[in-house]
């Protein structure tokens, strides 16, 4: 069972549009409303794979009630933390050529009492849990060290932690040795303070995060593939994707695939890549089912192409 923690969830509205025209009237060809937030998406991907999951998240106001209803309709157990503020609402505009424009609201501010209740809820729900996935940005009121404290508390209870966040929150959490961190290329570059132009650059950055405390690093390089660096070795993988419809939640689906497959080694990396590739072929933030996966399109190797230039370099 995989428990997810999303400190700053959202109600996400995704519109499929032919193209963006600033100042114009755009008619959407498709519309979706989904529960959002990186941890929420991980739970949705785990549930779509037919596995058990519990989503711990602070919820407030009408948007929060709708998020809970939408998750319940997908068969996901929700462990809500009631808050005084309203859950944020986000908007995503998905163009026909695959370009995505997102408008993310800041979210409510959590009080000290609400923060402690969030910790307590994670502890209460963490029994019989294989992994705890802590994901996304921190809402107002939570210090950058909040994830570090959560990792420390979870480890004290014997749980394994997967962490998907960025900036100072990621750096501070490293000292508590999360079992795996999952940065994308931009987050990886920000964490080490230098640009990434090649797969080798990304590899060196991932190794640096391990030196700082991460037990394993699952680095998503977008269209360039994924890297896994842990105590057992280094692996690089890619997948063939013919048509990209939306990359919303693709990284979250990838993390779910990694944890579903055990969260360790090249088989887990292959599962992560297969789930991420399947997600980008689907509209909006739809999560892939096993029928959507194409394992034959995935290639994983320990021969990392360190000199390969990234198609999407990070400056």
TrEMBL record:
Enzyme class: transferase
UniProt key word NAD: no
Domain of life: Bacteria
This protein's record includes keyword Protein biosynthesis: no
CDD domains: FruK_PfkB_like (cd01164)
GO terms of biological process kind: carbohydrate catabolic process; small molecule metabolic process
Start and end residues of each Carbohydrate kinase PfkB domain: 18-288
Record keywords: ATP-binding, Kinase, Nucleotide-binding, Transferase
GO molecular function: 1-phosphofructokinase activity; ATP binding
An annotated GO cellular component: cytosol
EC number: 2.7.1.56
Similarity field: Belongs to the carbohydrate kinase PfkB family.
Identification of the protein by name: 1-phosphofructokinase
The species this protein was found in: Streptomyces chromofuscus
Taxon lineage: Bacteria, Bacillati, Actinomycetota, Actinomycetes, Kitasatosporales
